[in-house]
Every structure is written in C-alpha cells, then in structure tokens.
Amino acid sequence: MKLFLHQLRGEQRLYWRSHELAFFTFLFPVLIFVLLGSVYGNDVIKSEHVKGSAYLLAGILGYGIASTAFAGLAIMLVIRREGGILKRLRATPLPPATYLVAAIASTVIVFAIEAATLIVLARVLFGVHVPHEWLSLVLALLLGTLSFAALGLALTGFIRSGEGSSAVVNAIYLPTAFLSGSFWSTHAYPRFLQVIADILPLTYFIRLMRDVVLHNETIWANWRSAAVVAAWGIAGLVLAVRSFRWEPREG
Length: 251
Fold this sequence. Notes:
Helix content: over 70%
Distance between the termini: 36 Å
Strand order of the largest sheet: 1-2
Radius of gyration: 18 Å
C-alpha cells in the first residue's frame, strides 16, 4: 500500500507537470463544452425535450472519458514503454501490478476532477440542474473510467512506436467520439452510421450518462447500457493481459 500511494503521488505530479497531456486530455474537453454550450446551449433538443447545454454535458462527459482514460493513458504508456521506462521499472522493487493500478487510479482522479469541473460549469454558465442521482452518477463514471482504461491498456500492445502513438490513438477515439454523439444527437444519422454507432462502447456510456444526468434515472434502471460498457471493459482487460508489453517494440 505504501508503494502504491507513493507511485500514485508520483503519477499525479507527472500528469499535471506534462502541460501538453493535461491540456488535451483535461482542459480541451472543458473548452469544447464551454464553446459548444455558448453556441447552442439554450436550444432545445427535440428528441429528448431537454436544454441543449444539459444534453451536451452528458455527451462531453463521454468525450472526456475517452480522451482521458482511453487516449491519454494509452499514449502515456506507449511513450514510457518505447523510452525504456517501463523496462527499467521491472528492475525496481515496485511490483508491475502496483504500477499499473497506480496509473489507472491517477486517471480516475483526473477524470473525477474533470467531471466535477464540467458539472459546475454547466450549472454556473448555463443553468443546468445538478444531477439528483449522485450515487448512480459516481458509479457510472467509475465504471466508464475503468472500462476505457482497460481498452487503452489493450491498445498499447498494438502500437509499435512512441512517435506514432498519438496518430493511432487519435484515429480511433476522435471518430468514435463523433459517431457516438458526444457533441450532438445521433437521431439524424444515416442507417449505416447508426449501425456503427450501436457497436461502440462510448455510445452506451453516453446513453447511460444522459439517462442519469438528464432524466435522473439510476444506473440500475439502465443496466443494459452499463452491462455493455462493462463487457467492453472486461474484453479490454483480457486483451491487455495478452498483449501488454513492458519492453520497447522498436529496434
């Protein structure tokens, strides 16, 4: 436990000192929310009969979790692996599992701060009501963070270079964010895009967020969406166990 807490503190320092990582995975989703909320935040989303800024809040929580727990974690671990940092860590008294758990726990903390920031800004800037089902909101956010972190771990095994990590990850999570409806409603999608969106885990996480945030439903009432997100997380964990590497792949 002492090693875990020590590593967790180190992971937090490294994250906030990496200004580029902190900007694109933490601050960028917040900026997008403020900008888009200023554009159509006062409109009414007819398909849900809710205010546009409230609808956007649930979607940006999904975008933020993909940005932070999936993309940010994957890029960071690939860069450390290709730089030989993970290999050298294996020679220290720090157990490998403790290191990975600390890295994921740091990601959970970062996204918790990001989610709280988004909810506060939604209330202050756009008058969005604070979600009533706090327990369901916390559980849904935790489930999503862990699931997408597992998928990020799995992806690292398929990225061959540190230089290409950003390109590979962005090519996956950015289209996923658009297709899943992070920034708008998916009701007007053509049929083939709806079929693709219905496969993606982020689609189900955003649906879960909108049910909890917009309609004050519990996570138990939306167990199907939660189960799909959890299933993707378990699949990512199984794949990560098989594909995760500690030694550089280059050279």
